[in-house]
Amino acid sequence: MNIEDPRSNPKPGDHVGIIDVFAHDPKTDEIVLVMNEPRPWDGSEERLHQLQEKFNAYVSFLLDGELAEAHPDLVGKPARIEIRCEDMPDDRAVELLGMIHDQLAFQNIKMEVVVGRGGSPEPPAGDSEPEGQGQSPLPKIDN
């Protein structure tokens, strides 16, 4: 799997197998994978499929040995996937995200939706943004 800078990814839907941002958050000691979603939500089947495939790639990276091979020092640390989007996800996307959250919980992987920073190359989680700013009105999706 490739790890790519989000600024070089002009069409997010075309690169479902690429992790947008990979980091270690020293404040929480978590592995953080960030999925940038700058496009407006359109409720299409294609868009939902792309979202699901992107999550599949992120989970595969965490669980199928790619993380251990690339970063053996991070093996065993808790993981969090953040989806950062410009706009609040539409109803169909919220429903899918809820199902994904439930499945990730079985693997002890946290998930958060952050609205208003899609496509942002800012560091995940432990950044300097004031608490609550930019957070989705969705319930905080973590375990």
Structural class: alpha/beta
Treating each run of at least 4 consecutive H or I residues as one helix, how many helices?
3
> Which sequence of strands runs across the widest sheet?
1-2-3-4
CATH T-level fold name? Trna Endonuclease, Chain: A, domain 1
DSSP strand count: 4
Q: What pattern of helices and strands is seen along the backbone?
A: EEHHEHE
CATH class value: Alpha Beta
Q: What is the rounded distance between the termini?
A: 26 Å
Q: Round the mean pLDDT to the nearest integer and report it.
A: 79
CATH second-level architecture: 3-Layer(aba) Sandwich
Overall geometric form: globular
Assembly state here? single chain
Radius of gyration: 14 Å
Number of spatially distinct domains: 1
**Unreliable residue stretches:** 1-10, 118-143
Note the main sheet.
Answer: 4 strands, mixed
Strand composition percent: 15-25%
